[in-house]
Design a protein that fits this description.
By secondary structure, the chain is α/β, with parallel strands linked by helices. The chain has two domains: 177 residues, 3-Layer(aba) Sandwich (Rossmann fold); 67 residues. Helices cover 50% and strands 18% of the residues. A six-stranded mixed beta sheet has the order 2-3-1-4-5-6, with helices on both faces. Helix 3 links the parallel strand 4 and strand 5. The N and C termini lie far apart (104 Å). Bound molecules: guanosine-5'-triphosphate and magnesium ion (MG). It comes from Mytilus coruscus. This is RAB5C. Belongs to the small GTPase superfamily. Rab family. One of its GO terms (molecular function) is GTP binding. Keywords: Membrane, Nucleotide-binding, Transmembrane, Transmembrane helix.
């Protein structure tokens, strides 16, 4: 797919205000992340897609349970040299799709590492889907069984599907299921993603308050130090002044005597 594709702005589904969902696509290079994004957003497939550089951004708005949902899709680069950039995209994101290629065991191993990383580093409320892509090649070249993928997803409480960006199999459903789960989670009291974001923000605000409190106490110390330095300078000045006076006192009697 073309690198750094321009965000597409489809018309909002439904009349209500769109709920924005940041979604990140992760997985080994070549598993088909960009192809999935391209299939979902534009309904296209490119046999000769180039590896993504950095990340690409796409958007799509859909209607889920009467709620207009706008996906902000971050299609990350799977090449290892871009790994360090990934947290920038998944941090704070409420949704992620971890993609592997059903014809590649190494991509499944990499997907497991992504799951581990997200469970440790990402937002604990993140809705994650594990996707075994290139299902159209499964009959001839399958290397990871559907059961293996599903079991791994179940073990970590993730959504699971097998997709084909080439034929479009399950691509749309995967995004809709993710959105439905997020909308459901957001609507259920006591487990509200927006509430959690607010809590995270208030937590962050608390941290900022602590920082500013510390800053204030540093300010106080600075003022005390400044006062001490000024006092020292004042005392030194007085001593010098006193010395000059006493020198003059010694000088004048001598002059008078002459
Ligand atoms: N047969 C088949 N080929 C696919 C499918 N999805 C992607 N491909 C092909 O796999 C290759 C890699 O696809 P990309 O979408 O560029 O892979 P990627 O995960 O974005 O790779 P990076 O950008 O390097 O991380 C391309 O040649 C695609 O045409 C699929 O579902 N079926
Ligand atoms: Mg790509």
């Amino acid at each position: 797919m073309t690198q750094r594709s321009q965000p597409k702005q489809p018309s909002a589904a439904g009349g209500s205000k769109s709920k924005q969902i940041k979604l990140v696509l992760l997985g080994e290079s070549g598993v088909g992340k960009s192809s999935i994004a391209l299939r979902y957003v534009r309904g296209e497939f490119n046999e000769n897609g180039e590896a993504t550089i950095g990340a690409a951004f796409l958007t799509k708005t859909v209607n889920v349970r009467g709620q207009s949902v706008k996906f902000d899709i971050w299609d990350t680069a799977g090449q290892e040299r871009y790994h360090s950039l990934a947290p920038m995209y998944y941090r704070g994101a409420p949704a992620a799709i971890i993609v592997y290629d059903v014809t590649s065991t190494s991509s499944f191993t990499r997907a497991q590492a992504w799951i581990k990383e997200l469970l440790q580093q990402a937002n604990s409320q993140m809705v994650i889907c594990l996707a075994g892509n290139k299902a159209d090649m499964a009959s001839e070249k399958r290397a990871v069984s559907r059961e293996e993928g599903k079991d791994h997803a179940d073990e970590h409480g993730l959504l699971f599907t097998e997709t084909s960006a080439k034929t479009g199999l399950n691509v749309e459903d995967m995004f809709i299921n993710l959105a439905a789960k997020i909308v459901a989670t957001t609507m259920s009291p006591g487990n509200d993603i927006e509430e959690n974001v607010r809590l995270e923000e208030s937590g962050r605000k608390k941290k900022m308050d602590v920082v500013s409190t510390v800053k204030h106490s540093y300010c106080d110390i600075n003022i005390v130090l400044k006062i001490l330095i000024l006092a020292l300078m004042f005392i030194t000045l007085i001593i010098h002044f006193w010395k000059v006076i006493s020198d003059l006192a010694l000088f004048f009697p001598k002059t008078n005597a002459e």
